[in-house]
Amino acid sequence: MQLSLLLPVLSLLGTLTAAKQMQVNYYTDTRCSKFASQIDVTWADRLGSGGQNCFNYQYGNSVNIADCYEKSCVCQFYYKTNCGGDYNTVTGGASGDSNCSSGSKYKSFRCFYYN
Fold it and tell me: Could you give the domains of the chain?
């Protein structure tokens, strides 16, 4: 009986921790106008938390933070896998942000948010 009560609670907790924090879009052109793919980010760390999230992904010729569901979102796009080496920073969430970055050579990224 107790297990049957615990399962719905655990299911709800899993849903809460997987909330979409931002959406990263990839484009086939270099100006973020010809949509190709999107990634729903649910694993970003709070800015300044020391989190080490990293997502290996290479696609398209430009990238942006299309939607930010926090006060502000930041992603660092790396030229090497496993978030190593040099990177470009893209921000989203503030009114008027122009956050398109030409990114055909990006191989990984990590994202952060603050609210």
Answer: 2-114 (2.60.20.10)
92-101 contacts, C-beta under 8 A, 24 or more apart:
92/22, 92/64, 92/65, 92/66, 92/67, 92/68, 93/65, 93/68, 97/65, 99/64, 99/65, 100/31, 100/32, 100/62, 100/63, 100/64, 101/62, 101/63, 101/64, 101/77
Question: What tens digit of pLDDT does each residue of 29-65 get?
Answer: 999 999 999 999 999 999 989 888 999 998 899 999 9
Q: How far, CA to CA in Å, does 89 sit from each of 5, 8, 51, 86?
A: 45, 39, 16, 10
Who's near 14: CB < 8 A, 6+ residues apart?
none
Q: Which two tokens stand for residue 39?
A: 């990634």
* pTM, two decimal places: 0.79
